[in-house]
Description:
This protein is about 45% helix and about 15% strand. It is α/β, with parallel strands linked by helices. The termini are close together.
Amino acid sequence: MKIATVLGTRPEIIKLSPLIPLLDKEFNHILIHTGQHYSYNMDKAFFEDLNLRNCDYTLNVGSNTHAKQTGEMMAKLEEILQKEKPDVIIIQGDTNSTLAGALTASKLNIKTAHIEAGCRSFDKKMPEEINRIIVDHISDILFAPDINAVNNLTAEGIPESTIFLVGNTSTDACLRVAELFNLNKLEELNLKKGNYAVLTLHRQENTEYEKLKEILDAINEISKEIKIVFPAHLRTKKIIESNDIKLNNNVLVIEPARYKEFMGLVSNSLFVMTDSGGLQEECAILNIPCLILRENTEWEYLVTLGKNMLIGTKYEEIINKVTDLISDEEHLSTMKEIKAPVNKGASKKIVSILKIK
C-alpha cells in the first residue's frame, strides 16, 4: 500500500513524529511538506530534533491569505498525487495544509485519513474550526483522539463505521522525545525550575492589534509577580514591533526555540500561558498547569477535568485568574496532580487500522 502524508506546520511535524517512522516501516510512504510555516529550512531543526527523515516533496508555499495559500497548496499537491497515485492520504489536525490535502485527495478519489478528527471549539469565527468540520465530512477514515471527539462526529451524522477512537499521537510524540529535552535555554536565561512562566501567542484572533495589546498589557502586569519567557512567533513579533507595543523587562522575549529547548523550558516552568492547541495537550502530559488565552478550546475535556484552565483574552480576567493562581499553591499543586486520561499507542493503532482499511 502506498500512503502519502501531508504536513506543513511545526505542530503537525511534532504530532506526526511518532507515526512517520512506523509508516516508513510498514508502507510505501511518501512525505509531503507544504511549507505553510514560511520556510522548510526553518522546519529542518524540528526534523533534526525529532530524528525524522527528510521529506520527499517540499512545496515552499509560505505565508499568504487563507484562500491563496490553500489554493496554491492544492495546485501543487494535485500534481504530486496524480504522479504518485497513493492509496491513502494522511492529514493531521486543522491547518490550511490539512484542508488542502483533504480537498485535493477527495477530488482525485483518493481515500483520506484524518488524524485528530472530531475536535470542536464550536466557534466558527476560528479558521481552524472551519477546517476541522470540512475535513471531517470529506474524509473516509477518522481517527478520533477521545470520546468527546467521537460524540461530536456522530452528532454531525458521520457514519460510525468510519470513526476509530485511537487516542492522541501527541502523547506518543511527547513521551518519545522526552529524553531529548534540554536545559540550554534555562541556563542561557539564568532561570531555575519553577521560578518562571512560559507564554506563547500565535492565533489569528489573538494577534490582531487591539486584542494583542490587551493581552500583553495583562502580561506586563502579571510579570510584576513572576518572570515570563516569551518565545515570540514571527507574526506576533512583527505586530509588536510595528505598533511599538512595550513589554516589561521581566518579560523575556526570545526567538522561537528549537523543539527540545522549548520543551525544556515548558517542562521546568511553574505554568504556561498559551493559545496553542498542541501545547495544551503537551502540558497535560507533562503535568504543567496550562492557562489558555482563549474563550474556548477544542480540548475542553482537559478544562472540565481541572487539568487546564481557560483564562480568556480580557485584561482584567487574565490578571485576576493568573494572580489568584500564583498566590494559591494548593490550586497549582492540584492542577499538576490531576491525571489526564492520556494513553500511549495511538500511532500503532493508526497503522494497524490502515492495514485493514
